[in-house]
Fold L-histidine N(Alpha)-methyltransferase.
Amino acid sequence: MSTITTETTTTNKTQFLEETLIGLKSEPKFMQSKYFYDEKGDYIFQQIMNMEEYYLTDAEMDILSNQTAQLAKVITAPGDPFDLIELGAGDATKSVHLLKALIEQKHDFTYFPIDISEHVIADLEENLPLKLPTLNLQGLNGDYFAMLKRATEISSRRKVMLFMGANIGNMNVDEARDFCIDLRNLLSKGDMLIVGFDLKKNPQQILAAYDDEAGITSSFNLNLLQRINRELEGDFDLDGFEHYASYDPETGACKSYLISLKNQEVKIGQKERISFAANEYIFMEISQKYSLKEIEQLAKSSGFNVLTHFSDAKGYFVDAVWTL
Ligand code: AVJ
């Protein structure tokens, strides 16, 4: 059962180059945050999750470790086998709690972790069976929708989708709605979607999580320039760019940018040259925050029914349970 399904590496590299150039030739310039997660990016993201300022991980862990029984109950029915598909599984430290509870309750299910990082899926395939020997596991490495389609081809059982970790925050509200509509179109009546949202809260607290003193978030962003240097023969001067984060309490948008510190030209591959003016920015990432009301609106506008939600003791984070 444990064979990784992977998109070919050449396709990934061509797509990385194409999408990088589209972003850097746009006005204003942008990059896609899905490319943060190469092996070094995965490692830096682990460090982010361990930071004092990055409250999100602890908050969702509080939900998954203390309300697993209730969550397991909401997503299962006696004698009803299902597939548990996780988008952006990461190291699955949170989902492991749920997997464990489902196994203990003797539910018949297969776990399909999907992740854009090849390294992440390989790690899961190696480590999860050690922790949970009886788990039915099939790792899928690639883009969410390509791999989700693959999962629906492999099995036709009822689907429970997990999209945790506030990964939905990497889309703005309109993109999130379109994304949820696309998910809904791949799901059927009775299927479920569990989505993790970071809630609007004190703006200082949010900003600190994305602009830490130690500069870990800064190195997370700069690593994408390094990745372009490594994989796409770029020559970014990392000292020529500086991390800048902002949070707007009105819209709930937390954004990060890399600011060019001088007029400079950067080479990518053999023939591409990109110019940066002093103080020009590259928009790197959005981490959208929601109110409970906005979460319900998102469910409705994308055609889901709200079943319930679970929140942590501090009220920082919500795992919403939607159904079709
Ligand atoms: C993995 C998308 C949830 O937006 O909070 C953390 C990524 N970026 N610090 C987030 C991230 C900067 C993270 N997500």
Q: What stands out?
A: The chain has eleven helices and 15 strands. The mean pLDDT is 94.
